[in-house]
Every structure is written in structure tokens, then in C-alpha cells.
Amino acid sequence: AVALHILIFGMLFVSFAMTPDLPEAKPIVQATLYQLKSKSQATTQT
């Protein structure tokens, strides 16, 4: 499960690095990060 999280964050970082500063992509990235946070919290609670 930890490796999966690292992989997801790695892909997020790569996509973030490849798209320097797209204003329309920022809310999507923020929503994905928020979803990842809630998911990781749910997995740690169980």
C-alpha cells in the first residue's frame, strides 16, 4: 500500500514538473491531493 502511494505521488510530481504552471490544471491537482490525503487517512485509520 505504501509503494502504491509513493508511485501515485511520483506520477503526480512528474506530471507537475512536465506542466510548469497551468492555471486550469491547478484545481485538478489540488483536488487529487485532497483525495489522496483523505484516502491515506482512511487507510491509516483501518
Explained architecture:
The chain has 46 residues and is mostly helical. The chain has one domain (2-45). Helix content is 80%, strand content 0%. The protein is built from two helices and no strands. The protein has helices at residues 2-18, 26-45. It is flat, with a radius of gyration of 12 Å. 0% of the residues are buried.
- Give the percentage of residues in beta strands: under 5%
Rough outline:
flat
Q: What is the string of SSEs from the N terminus onward?
A: HH
| Structural domain count | 1
The structure class reads mainly alpha
Strand tally is 0
Helical content stands at over 70%
The parts where pLDDT drops under 50 for at least 5 residues are none
* Main sheet record: none
> What radius of gyration results from the CA coordinates?
12 Å
Average pLDDT, rounded to a whole number, is 72
What is the oligomer described by this structure? single chain
Question: In whole angstroms, how far apart are the ends?
Answer: 13 Å
Number of H- or I-type helical stretches: 2
